[in-house]
Amino acid sequence: MTLKEEQAKIQIKPSVTTNFKMAMVVLTFLITCFHLLEVVYFPDVTLVSNEILLGVVLFAIIYLWVQEVKDRRKVEVVNIELLISQEELKEANIGAMKALITGEEARDPYISGHSRRVTEYTMAIADKLNMSEEEKKHMEYAGNLHDIGKIGISDAILHKAGKLDEDEWKIIKKHPEVGVGILASLKFLPEEKILIRHHHERYDGAGYPDGRKGENIPLGSRILAVADSFDAMNSKRSYRPPLSKEKIIKELETAKGTQFDPKIVDVFLDIIKQDDSIFVK
Ligand SMILES: [Fe+2]
How far does residue 244's CA lie from ligand 1's centre (Å)? Predict the structure, then answer.
C-alpha cells in the first residue's frame, strides 16, 4: 500500500464541524452585541441577566477549546500512525530488496552471504566509532543493499570463472550507479543512495564512479569499502582460495591512505585481531 493510500485510509474526523464552530462564535458574538445594545439604549430593561450572558459566553469558549484540544490530539495520533506505516512500508521494501540480493548471491557459492557479512563488519566498525543509532540504521541498509546494482549485470560477466577483460570491468564498475538507479523508485533512503554510490571510491581519489578523495568520500562509504574488500579477501573465489589472516592484515595495512581511510583500517584491524573466528583461513 502506498503512502497516499495509507493517508486516504486514515481520515481525521473533527469532533464538531468547522461550520458548527463558526456558528457558535457568531451566536456568542450576536448575544454579546444584543446585550451591549440593551445596556446602552434600554438600561431599565433586563431581558438577559449578566450572569446568564457570562455563563453562555464562558460555556461557548470552553466548549470550543475542548473540541480544539481533542482535534489536535486526533491529528497527533494520526501523524504517529502515518510515521509507523511509513516505517513499515520502508522495512517491507528493504526486506524485498534484501531477499532479491540474497537470492542473487545464493546462485554463486563464491559470493553467497557477501552482503550480510559486509553489513556485519560495517556495523562492527560503526559501533567502534560510536556512530548514532540513526547513522547505524543508514549503514545497515546501505550494507545490505550496496551491491544491488549487480542484479542488472549478466551472469556471463558476474559469474565468470576467469579474470574480467577491460570492457567487462567497465560494466562491473557501473554497479554503484545502477544500484542507485534501482533504488530511485523508492522515495526514501536518500542517505543510503549516497553511501551506495560511493562505496568503490578510493581514499587517494583513484576509485569510481566520481573519483572522490579523502574526507570528500562519505564516512559510511569509506567504512563500506573496507568491509567489502575484507570480505572479498576472506572469501574463496573460483580462481583463488581465501587469503590467510596474515596476508589480509598486510593488504589492509598496505592500502592505508591509498585505497582506504587509514583511521577506518585501524579501527577494523582492532576488531578483527580480537576475533580470530572471523577469518576463514
Ligand atoms: Fe560493490
Answer: 22
